[in-house]
Write a structure and sequence with these properties.
heterodimer, A: about 240 residues, alpha/beta, 9 helices, 10 strands, about 40% helix, globular, B: about 240 residues, MetI-like fold, about 75% helix, about 0% strand
């Protein structure tokens, strides 16, 4: 579903991604962990063309991502949830969710509305359809952002630290929604997060990244309980306290 | 009868000829409206160009803005009035006024629009691009609608400057308020003082409410935490 080959990325002289090779199977739930600045966000942003690798290839659904096709390819394959929610503040919740289905997927207003309410129900916020994002709590905004991502019905869902900007008491409500999503067999999920409990519960595979490269990967229980690499051990000991 | 510059009979005469001033005011309003529409269109297009990632578009916008911001409006108007007819471009003074003032203020509006677009958090266009919207769609659906509220005060100040600057038409016999006032005074009994005072008042009546509204609106935006500081100051013109 997702394939990265020999991906290198620099920001100026900073080498942020070092020879990344990654294959994510359809329906796989992948969690990427690592200290800040390790390149995990850049990696996930390369998958949906928000960043362009300096060299190497990114393939989505067997199609090579390039300058010409990236908008279309991202449109038909990926949806993303951001750390800062990035809801459109000038639109109601309903408009936020229906914008892409109506304008990009050419769905009728009615069709898009039905779809929007379906996902609002899923995230438990049906009653907020006509509210503006600024009137919602962080946790609610992120759940709306997830509904917005779901409404385009893509096969790949990307989550870039979806709970990092939330107050602690709101983290669980967002994780609960994401756990619910993970029961969907066909949906491919790539999640950058520090929530180890979530990773254990839903991940098929966890990758530990440090300094722009993959250090260690494996099934969550194996990686968390029995890390092999020193850097993984030291990171996990800090995170798990 | 007193012959001082402010003599009563001069005011009476002006009142009798008020139709002249009304016509001038109307012309000024029409030229302003046309020039403002043109400036807005030019400004939005160039503002988009200067925030695009295309280097050519960026350069075009930059050159345009710098050219018009750093040359006097009078030269531009004279150029259209005196030089262009030599290559067969003959416009009436009304058109010259609208076009001259419009392209000039287009440069300033472009800077306002550019600053406005830059003030929107990058996460907004990232979210939109991540949904598969193109750059133009992102601007149209997501960025520009959020920009409008923020740039309304500086845009209104531009409109005020634009109205005042239409008085440049007076030097090419443009039939605008300033021209009518001036020619009325010089053809009459040299009643310059009342003519200029009344004309100034008329401009003031047009501009002051706009400027006041812009200032209040900006304060309201600040108090509602929508903007924290006024947009980076666009040079006065």
């Amino acid at each position: 579903m997702i394939k990265l080959a020999d991906v290198e990325k620099y920001f100026g002289s900073l080498h942020v991604l070092k020879n990344i090779n990654l294959t994510v199977a359809e329906g796989e739930k992948l969690v990427i962990i690592g200290p800040s600045g390790s390149g995990k966000s850049t990696l996930i942003r390369c998958i949906n063309a928000l960043e362009e690798p300096n060299s190497g290839q990114v393939m989505l659904n067997n199609e090579l991502l390039n300058k010409q096709n990236k908008t279309r390819l991202v449109r038909v394959n990926c949806a993303m949830v951001f750390q800062q929610f990035n809801l459109y503040p000038h639109m109601t919740v309903l408009k936020n969710i229906t914008l892409a289905p109506i304008k990009l997927q050419k769905k009728s207003r009615e069709e898009a509305r039905v779809l929007a309410y379906k996902y609002l129900d899923l995230v438990g916020l049906r009653e907020k359809a006509n509210a503006y994002p600024s009137t919602l709590s962080g946790g609610q905004q992120q759940r709306i952002a997830i509904a917005r991502a779901l409404a385009t019905q893509q096969k790949i869902l990307l989550f870039d630290e979806p709970t990092s900007a939330l107050d602690p008491e709101m983290v669980q409500e967002v994780l609960d929604v994401m756990i619910k999503l993970s029961s969907e067999k066909n949906t491919t999920m790539v999640v950058v997060t520090h929530e180890m409990g979530f990773a254990r519960q839903v991940a098929d595979r966890v990758i530990f990244m440090d300094d722009g490269a993959f250090v260690e990967q494996g099934e969550p229980d194996a990686l968390f309980d029995n890390p092999q690499n020193e850097r993984t051990k030291s990171f996990l000991s800090k995170i798990l306290r | 009868m007193s012959n001082g510059p402010f003599a009563l009979w001069r005011w009476a005469r002006l009142f009798n000829d008020r139709g002249v001033f009304a016509e001038g005011l109307l012309t000024t309003l029409l030229v302003s409206a046309l020039a403002l529409s043109m400036a807005l269109i030019i400004g939005v297009v160039l503002g988009l160009c200067s925030t695009s990632r295309n280097r050519i578009l960026k350069t075009v916008a930059r050159v345009y803005v710098e050219f018009f911001q750093n040359t006097p409006l009078v030269i531009q108007v004279f150029f259209i009035y005196n030089a262009l007819p030599m290559i067969g471009v003959r416009w009436d003074v009304f058109t010259i006024g609208a076009v001259g003032v419009g392209v000039y203020h287009g440069a300033y509006v472009a800077e306002v629009v550019r600053a406005g677009i830059h003030s929107i958090p990058p996460g907004q266009s990232e979210a939109s691009r991540a949904q598969g919207f193109t750059h133009l769609q992102t601007m149209w659906y997501v960025v520009l609608p959020q920009t409008i509220q923020i740039i309304l005060p500086p845009l209104t100040n531009q409109a005020v400057n634009l109205i005042k600057n239409t008085s440049v038409l007076a030097i090419i016999a443009g039939g605008d308020l300033m021209y009518r006032a001036d020619s009325w005074a010089s053809n009459g009994a040299l009643s310059y003082a009342p003519a200029y005072i009344v004309t100034g008042l008329l401009y003031f009546i047009l501009c002051f409410p706009l400027a006041t509204w812009a200032r209040r609106y900006e304060e309201r935006l600040k108090s509602r935490d929508i903007i924290h500081e006024p947009l980076e100051e666009v040079v006065e013109c």
